[in-house]
């Protein structure tokens, strides 16, 4: 499963023993895989400031999750011809580094082996500063995402409009890829060539009558140059001065003159525009031509899927998007940007989860700071109810009222809001990596 439960309990002896009991029961029953979740020692500040920070982090958490889901969906849209490889591009730990040296980690492995990034978010500075740094980083990514996806959307729309012109029926589609110079009488002072759409059922009638629809129609000048399921496109040559009369008579016989002027430069421009748009669109998601060798590394209790490319160091603090993007040679600019910044946003999101656990644990369990955070990965969907029961049983002593209400969801407790079942005797936050569902 791609679902995680991030919980915490007080770090005193009694509750550490409770955590051990939880580990024993969940492991024995194969309910979840549990790992410690390391959170650094932050500057606490005042409890009043933590209350305000708790609300701020809640909003930032929701925003960050929404942002990475939008970015994941953008990767799907950009890689429309390679959707089976989308998850290969939704990784953590940054994009391609100098000389293709990096360690690309799948999202599950990043979460289960989370380490606070001291370089990007120094733990010794006030908590508000850390939150502000994360908020500004995510806001900048969203701003860039909007501008880049908007530009891609315009490109895609323009291309779709051109493609529609080349795939419609003879009444609406562009004719630049159908006609040729040889189909027309050009540069004549007196003669002109018209294009006429004739229903298939009226081909014989057209051949019999087109020369007599008006005066001054060149005999035997008609030629079928294209057809679709319903009609055919015929040429006919006549004197310019009878053009309007011919159009009226043709319409009376259910033959439609298609307005078209053969302009070689315009036709060439339209074809080149189609080629350019196709090329530009393809370049946005063109994947790296460099073959990455797949490998694996193993932690003590969990296999980590990685692509080892040398130095696993993260981007240095202050490294710009332009620096990181330039390192992913061979990839389209939009896909490369999405990969790098999806990773940055995802990493920021998990750091926000860590901050929420810290703040909520201090508010819930008090000072001095002493708690243990644990990450649980439910092994299957059907086991989540049983897992919740185990947790509520093990930690019910932390909040008897909440624990009792959770055993009976229909018990109403004045002053306690449990409608969404997000409050438990222990600190709890949910992490769902199903970003494309």
From TrEMBL:
Gene: Atp6v1c2
Region (Disordered): 307-330
Subunit structure: V-ATPase is a heteromultimeric enzyme made up of two complexes: the ATP-hydrolytic V1 complex and the proton translocation V0 complex. The V1 complex consists of three catalytic AB heterodimers that form a heterohexamer, three peripheral stalks each consisting of EG heterodimers, one central rotor including subunits D and F, and the regulatory subunits C and H. The proton translocation complex V0 consists of the proton transport subunit a, a ring of proteolipid subunits c9c'', rotary subunit d, subunits e and f, and the accessory subunits ATP6AP1/Ac45 and ATP6AP2/PRR. V-ATPase is a heteromultimeric enzyme made up of two complexes: the ATP-hydrolytic V1 complex and the proton translocation V0 complex. The V1 complex consists of three catalytic AB heterodimers that form a heterohexamer, three peripheral stalks each consisting of EG heterodimers, one central rotor including subunits D and F, and the regulatory subunits C and H. The proton translocation complex V0 consists of the proton transport subunit a, a ring of proteolipid subunits c9c'', rotary subunit d, subunits e and f, and two accessory subunits.
Keyword Transport: yes
General function of this protein: Subunit of the V1 complex of vacuolar(H+)-ATPase (V-ATPase), a multisubunit enzyme composed of a peripheral complex (V1) that hydrolyzes ATP and a membrane integral complex (V0) that translocates protons. V-ATPase is responsible for acidifying and maintaining the pH of intracellular compartments and in some cell types, is targeted to the plasma membrane, where it is responsible for acidifying the extracellular environment. Subunit C is necessary for the assembly of the catalytic sector of the enzyme and is likely to have a specific function in its catalytic activity.
Keyword Transport part of the UniProt annotation: yes
Source organism superkingdom: Eukaryota
InterPro entries reported in the protein's UniProt record: ATPase_V1-cplx_csu, Vac_ATP_synth_c_sf
UniProt cross-references to PANTHER family, sorted A to Z: V-TYPE PROTON ATPASE SUBUNIT C (PTHR10137), V-TYPE PROTON ATPASE SUBUNIT C 2 (PTHR10137:SF4)
Protein name as it appears in the record: V-type proton ATPase subunit C
Organism annotation: Microtus ochrogaster (Prairie vole)
Entry-linked Pfam families: V-ATPase_C
Entry similarity comment: Belongs to the V-ATPase C subunit family.
UniProt keyword list: Hydrogen ion transport, Ion transport, Transport
